[in-house]
Amino acid sequence: MREILGEVAAAAGGGLLRDARARRAERRLRAGLPVRIPCSARSERPGRSAGHVAGWLQLGPGGAVFRPRRGPALELPLGGSFHAPEPDAWYDAHWSATVYRPPGDGGPVHLCLPARCLPAVSGHLRAGAGGEAL
Questions:
Q1: Residue 44 and residue 46: Cα distance in Å, rounded?
Q2: pLDDT truncated to tens, each residue of the chain (134 aa)?
Q3: 0.85 cut: is pTM over it?
Q4: If 0-12 CB within 10 Å is exposed, 13-18 middle and 19+ buried, where does residue 60 land?
Q5: C-beta separation of 22 from 116 below 8 A
Q6: Backbone angles phi, psi at 108, to 5 degrees
Q7: Burial (Cβ within 10 Å: 0-12, 13-18, ≥19) of residue 126
Q8: Cα dihedral 111, 117, 119, 120 in deg (nearest 10)
């Protein structure tokens, strides 16, 4: 019985924590403050690794940068568009996979980030250089 109660408490607490982090990210973006969101990314740009790399997506008033745990950072210019991921993309109830196509010819970036943070991230990246973040 203890094990069942422990699992229920962990599941309920995890959901509340994920909701609070997503709301905090939205508030900080609206206020023009930087936000750091856990993320994994795969870029089709030359010189990048072929697989997903774990790291953080740092969003700020001037743009976005994916910072992997190891290796060089990946700049994500604002004003791009989001597209559905490839059909065999990894999926989890708490994570969303999406493809971000930055403006210009930089090549698509495949992102996997918390599902509750996706609206804030997509609103920020679509805003463009002179638009509102959300």
A1: 6
A2: 666 666 666 566 566 777 787 888 888 888 888 999 888 888 877 666 667 788 999 998 778 999 988 888 888 888 888 888 766 665 666 788 888 888 887 788 888 888 888 888 888 888 754 444 33
A3: no
A4: middle
A5: yes
A6: -70, 155
A7: middle
A8: -100
